[in-house]
């Protein structure tokens, strides 16, 4: 997909990488891992499949970052402005969830898995939302603030 970031579509707009599709795939993998983990509670679940799903989600997020980083003429200023605020909101939500996990005395292995899942989501969700705003920005802002 080397030429896709700079190619033009029929309407004269820049074709961007499929950030939203890959982001949704990443979230689906991460949520599937959490669903697998919680399906065997209150017993001690086997973490192998859940970790595999989380690793797949992390690889998808990294691929998303790499493909988006190659986009030329993208509204990076808008992307980072929106992304920072969403990241702040997500940090508050993740903090509340981590408090619940610790308060409920989750075992260390499960707690580590859930914290890692929150970390993947902390990158994925703000990136998808910021991309959704920046891709329709018509101000020509392509500089990084």
What's the overall average pLDDT, rounded? Answer: 86
DSSP helix fraction: 55-70%
Compressed to H and E, one letter per element, the order equals HHHH
The value of Rg in angstroms is: 18 Å
Low-confidence stretches: 1-10, 141-145
The biggest sheet amounts to: none
Helical element count? 4
Tally the beta strands: 0
Distance between the termini: 27 Å
How many separate domains? Answer: 1
Gross geometry: elongated
SSE class: mainly alpha
Assembly classification: single chain
Estimate the strand proportion.
Answer: under 5%
Short structural description:
The protein is mainly α and 145 residues long. The protein contains 4 helices and no strands.
Give structural notes.
The chain starts with 18 loop residues before the first helix and ends in an 11-residue tail after the last helix. It has helices spanning 19-39, 48-69, 76-103, 108-134. The chain contains four helices and no strands. The radius of gyration is 18 Å and the shape is elongated. Helix 1 (19-39) packs antiparallel against helix 2 and helix 3 (76-103) runs antiparallel to helix 4 (108-134). It has one domain. Helix content is 68%, strand content 0%. It is mainly alpha-helical and 145 residues long. The model is unreliable at 1-10 and 141-145 (pLDDT under 50).
């Amino acid at each position: 997909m080397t030429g896709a970031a700079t190619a033009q579509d029929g309407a004269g707009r820049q074709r961007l990488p499929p950030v939203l599709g890959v982001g949704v795939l990443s979230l689906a993998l991460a949520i599937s891992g959490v669903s697998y983990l919680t399906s065997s509670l209150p017993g001690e679940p086997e973490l192998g499949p859940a970790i595999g799903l989380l690793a797949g989600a992390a690889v998808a997020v990294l691929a998303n970052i790499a493909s988006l980083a190659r986009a030329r003429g993208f509204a990076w200023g808008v992307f980072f402005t929106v992304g920072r605020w969403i990241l702040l909101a997500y940090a508050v939500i993740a903090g509340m969830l981590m408090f619940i996990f610790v308060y409920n005395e989750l075992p260390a292995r499960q707690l580590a898995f859930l914290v890692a899942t929150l970390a993947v989501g902390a990158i994925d969700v703000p990136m998808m939302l910021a991309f959704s705003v920046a891709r329709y920005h018509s101000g020509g802002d392509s500089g990084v603030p």
